């Protein structure tokens, strides 16, 4: 868990990372409370540092006026978290990022407001040496993306890489509620988006609208600063539609009252096509190298997909995931963290294991450097793609549950219908108590059953605690089942 946050050191201090880790650790626990001894172990810190982190977090909650959304309390040797539905850990993380030295430097460089190192040393109550060190750290990170920070503190190099990096960073940190540019630019860009929706007869989600808002805004700022896309973007599949380009060009000139180059429109086309609302046309086109590699590795582990009903959907979704990576190279920032949730780990271990295995194998080949460069971004997308597309029966044999309550047939059917909400697990329901039954669900004590059959005695109707216990028993029984198609040796991880 601790390693998930290490990549954020460009923008977050070790103290800030520990505070976020404290919240995340408690969020993942049952009833959102964890003993101090468990927190020390999971966070890898001493009790002294843990208690300091707790106190600093409490102060930050008050400082940022989050006390109505988030509360943290230490009762004896247990730390408990209380939060309402409007709070996300990202809220606090983004507040930390915005106030960080690294982000302030990047933001001022992008907006042509960088002054000199002395000013930043005074502003952040730190030494000039630390400011120089932070600038050099940022330079090294940017150079890996084909971006240079010039001696005059200007972003130069690959223009598409510059816009992509700033777009990903600003979209992540600011979002829709805290737009950092001028009101005029926001109004113009939103008008552009609404016109495109109308002309294309398409409705974009709030997420897609926010992504497009920031991308166009950043492109406009770069163009106004006379930083243009000089080379035509390389097109990887997509909608080769002249009418689409014409609509964009016409709308752009209407809203921003100026002509736009063909390269700028091409870049805009590539970005818009990467949004969920715009399907890619794949007929008579060869699959890209990343999708081919994924399908090859997947079939090595789980068998041939030719006879499956979901192969086409899996390929189409992979192409959609890889499309922006192939066109923009790096979609991930230092702020991205891998999906780590107890629910996912307990119910989809095979998916997590395959994705880790795939990313690890790709990292060993220079040919697939884009996968390594976007490892967190791609892994997160792969996980939910596989969960969404593959049926629960694909990976493992069913957990067999026998339902037998003294209230009879109709009550048994009531329980059955509620168990169907566990559709993310391969559960097979029976009313016959045979030797291969994994769990007997009933309201009476019984003995003398097969030793592998777990008996769960429920209240009628079941309590919240009964359902929680059933969920844990299902997860345990599932964990004992072998993988259905091949499998990945655990020693690879």
From TrEMBL:
Record bears the keyword Transcription: yes
Keyword annotations from UniProtKB, A to Z: Transcription, Transcription regulation
Pfam families per UniProt: Mga
Top-level taxon in the UniProt lineage: Bacteria
Mga helix-turn-helix domain: residues covered: 87-170
InterPro entries: BglG_antiterminators, Mga_HTH
PANTHER family: CRYPTIC BETA-GLUCOSIDE BGL OPERON ANTITERMINATOR, TRANSCRIPTIONAL REGULATOR MANR
Protein name: Mga helix-turn-helix domain-containing protein
